[in-house]
Amino acid sequence: MVAASIVLAPLHPESDLRAVEAVYRRASDYLALESGLTPDAAARAFFEERPPTGDDAPLKFGVADDTGGLVAIGDLAFGYPEPTDACLGLLLLVPTVRGEGLGQAILGEVKRLASARGALRLLLGVLDANERARAFWERQGFKLNRTSGPHAFGKRHHLVHRLELPLGGNA
Ligand SMILES: CC(C)(COP(=O)(O)OP(=O)(O)OC[C@H]1O[C@@H](n2cnc3c(N)ncnc32)[C@H](O)[C@@H]1OP(=O)(O)O)[C@@H](O)C(=O)NCCC(=O)NCCS
């Protein structure tokens, strides 16, 4: 069971590296698709990655279930690629909590946070190979902005579809 109210808790490499690694270990399907990295390497990359421009450091967040265990991780950057954009660099749920509306609920909180920071648009990149995720984002109202690549992701190369969603202004 996942808590009814979604809290995007900030994650830090000093305290949360092993918990993030455990999420990647459980989500080995996504890791195999995306990068082919080990859970350990993916967890380090999760904390290191940040967009080339933008405000501050991105928010690396986690969502816990009602036992306190991490079941989802994500990455939200502000001011990238344009100053009035927010960019969801990653949203990853462990398989046991997928398909229950948690992704949609987290997106709702991400949109609220991004709007509160003044973002007018939310962007993300979905891999061409990740058809289920693309269907999910399109159901949430995202539209294709552009396609680029192939880009290197660890041991893999992918075409990436950049999707965008207009935000309603300040929350
Ligand atoms: C994509 C994702 C964030 C959606 O969150 P979610 O909580 O599963 O989504 P919801 O329950 O709100 O909606 C379910 C829909 O998600 C989509 N989905 C994408 N990947 C899925 C997966 N591996 N398992 C279940 N549903 C998935 C499906 O389209 C599903 O629709 P369906 O029920 O008609 O099959 C989540 O499934 C996930 O983390 N997937 C693996 C990692 C990933 O692909 N992240 C996105 C990178 S751009």
From TrEMBL:
Keyword DNA damage: no
Residue stretches making up the N-acetyltransferase domain: 6-166
Top-level division of the source organism's lineage: Bacteria
Alphabetically ordered keywords of this record: Acyltransferase, Transferase
GO MF term (any one): acyltransferase activity, transferring groups other than amino-acyl groups
Gene3D superfamilies on file: 3.40.630.30
UniProt-listed Pfam families: Acetyltransf_1
Keyword Glycoprotein set for record: no
Matching SUPFAM superfamilies: Acyl-CoA N-acyltransferases (Nat)
PANTHER family in UniProt: AMINOALKYLPHOSPHONATE N-ACETYLTRANSFERASE-RELATED-RELATED (PTHR43877)
Protein name (Swiss-Prot/TrEMBL): GNAT family N-acetyltransferase
Protein source organism: Pleomorphomonas diazotrophica
